[in-house]
Amino acid sequence: MASRSSLVTLRTAIRSRAAVAAPASRALRTSTALRAGNPSVPEASKAPFSEPVGINPADKLAPLNSPLHEYGQYLTTCLPKYVQQFSVYKDELTLYIPPQAVVPVMTFLRDHTQCQYKAVMDITAVDYPTRQNRFEVGPSYSLKGLS
Length: 147
Known about the structure:
Blueprint: H1 2-37, H2 57-78, E1 85-88, E2 93-96, H3 102-111, E3 117-127, E4 135-145
Antiparallel strand pairs: 1-2, 3-4
C-alpha cells in the first residue's frame, strides 16, 4: 500500500510540474510570434550612452613585469645554489634564499656588474619571546640599486 501511495504522489508531482511549465512555454512562443508578426513591437532598447572601455591592469603591467621576470631568472641561473625561487609582485622582485645564503647573495648583488646594489634600505627582525633564541633577524632585506 505504501508503494502505491508513493506512485500516486509521484504522478501528481509530475503532472503539476507539466502544468506549471506549459503556460510559460506558451507565453514565450506567443510573445515571439507577436514580435515576428507585428512590426510595431519595439526591439530591446539600447543604452543612451556608451561607457568608455578601460585598460585591463594586467595588460598595463605586463610589459613592466617582463624585464623583472627576466632579471629574476638571470639571478636564479647565476646563483642556483642559493636562490630557491623568485617572484614579482607590484613591480618588486623578491628572491627567496635560505639563511646561510644571505652573505654570498648580498655580496653578489653588491659586486656583480649587472646588479650594482649599493645600499641596504631595510632589515626586518621578528621577536619570538617563547623561544630560547628570541630574535630572528632578516626575514626581509630591502636593497637600493643605482638605477
